[in-house]
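Re: weekly structure request thread

Next one in the queue (274 aa):
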Amino acid sequence: MTLRDALNAASAQLAGVSATPRLDAELLAAFGLGISRDQLLLSGLEGSVPPDFEALVGRRLAHEPVAYIIGERDFWTLSLKIGAGVLVPRPDSETLIEAAISFFSDRAPAQILDLGTGSGALLLAALSHWPDATGIGVDRSQTALTIARNNADVCNLGGRAGFQSGDWGEGLDERFDLILCNPPYIKEHAQLPREVADYEPLEALYAGPDGLADYRRLAQDIPRLLLPTGCACLEIGYDQGRTAASLFEGGDLRVEVLQDLGGRDRCLRLTRKA
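Done, posted below.
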């Protein structure tokens, strides 16, 4: 069997568990061969099948996310190391970086805070865009902090990114130009796909009966942590534009609900009222 044959067979198998079966098969094969997917595709696909390809496909058939199997995921312009204990970065979260870039326009934030940093994806994406900025990533999980520090080093951003243990903004007394956060926002009894529910950290997903528990905490922290000329960008669920926004209204913050590329509500952008 050629590599092409194996990819075709794996794609057919994975069609039942993945929306991107061919891509999954190619990523698994490239991982098994120790090369990039681009190198795989340029090889002509007539070479040998990786010896552990069947086992890798079997793990994906058990709904394990590809990012956990191969240990990495692309986000923004970066390739990040991913492991059990942190959420898999998703393209929807790039909406927060785009919202921040739009706000700052031709200026740049000096100090960035990433609350619930996980893999460090949001902080490191922002630091890669603004080369003079520095930032802090906060998380309660020591596993996440270890992965985030490793990603900062791999991306050559370790000198500008610090990471510390913390519970949202508790104990922080600095103020920041940009605050980024992808908090848990799933209602506690919501049904999730197996690849999420069986593998990703539930404490980073569920947020009480209405999915808003952590926004209530953030609504207390962000006004005191945000500099007057800065902005905070928070990820929300597609149906939380109104409910999450209402928690930040009534004070001195202006609240905007921004959409992702699919046209779904995805980001709260918070700025000071004039």
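The first strand starts at residue 72 and ends at 75. The two ends are 67 Å apart (CA to CA).
Next request, please.
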